[in-house]
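Hi everyone, sorry if this is the wrong subforum. Our group has a chain we'd like a structural model of before ordering constructs, and none of us has done structure prediction before. Sequence below.
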Amino acid sequence: MQRYSSTLAVPKMDCPSEERLIRMALDGKPMVQELSFDLSSRELRVVHTGDVATVVGILEPLKLGARVKDSVPLAADATDRAFKSIFSVPKMDCPSEERLIRMALEDRQDIRSLSFDLAQRELTVIHLDDVEGILGRLQPLGLGAVLSGSSLIAGEEAIQQGQSDDVGEAKALRLLLAINAVMFVFELALGLWAQSAGLLADSLDMFADAAVYGLALYAVGKAASMKTRAAHLAGWLQLLLALGALAEVVRRFVFGSDPESALMMGVGMVALVANVACLMLIAKKRDSGVHMRASYIFSANDVIANLGVIVAGVLVAWTGSSYPDLIIGTVIAVVVLNGARRILRLR
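Answer:
Right subforum, don't worry. Here is the predicted structure as tokens:
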């Protein structure tokens, strides 16, 4: 059956809520095979079978002003085959080079997926057209990109690989969300009981992380722009909670507190084990997009914060003073603030 790539102008689509409405309207429609959103340009690209007027008809009740800009038939063999090409990129060793590559390739409609392995400095591309066009985009970046190999795969395999990546991300994020939600309640309750500013600050950090993983879970399988928005929203949330933790430290400094050192150390150890497990889960997925890199940054911050709580518990027991607890509460809040800053800089 003939497939078409149609670009629709949607004048009133300027935020994620309109994107969700469109996805809900087109979800489950057999004729719709692929959706790609560009909120900044208010455009929607649809890969579909049948008449594009049917797609417009489905969107009309949403009253977003959808209209067809262009519609072109896809090559017949595009449905049957795709290529898997692996590039060696010697100078790609951090997220900034990944962003350069994504920017260089973002307007190529034939690319189905990008997979980055920063440790091995390799890029895997699933695409439809000739590999030379992709290599032509990579070489001017000056990262030493060379083609390691390219093989023909079934078009269905290309689709399944993209779905498999999304399923893997979603599975990891659900587990991370559950761990952090449980630890937030656990640390908050015992932090109040122990009168520990450090534990309370760490519990707020757990809450922020649970929200981060929830937002990242929502972004799985969405457009790159949606993943960036989810990461930035999580960054702003972490910023607000860090400021709240600082306010709590100031309150306890003014009115006094009597932290329980043994409880601080015990809860800190449990939280450390939980967050090391989270860090190991997310490490393999951190190169899957901005939303996953944000999640990795938050998990790394948590491990640092837990170690700080344990050290503070030891110092409280040794000195008999509440100041180590207040100091570590401040340090954790500052670490969280820095994490928020790093997230908000991600593009």
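For your construct planning: The mean pLDDT is 76. The longest strand covers residues 146-154.
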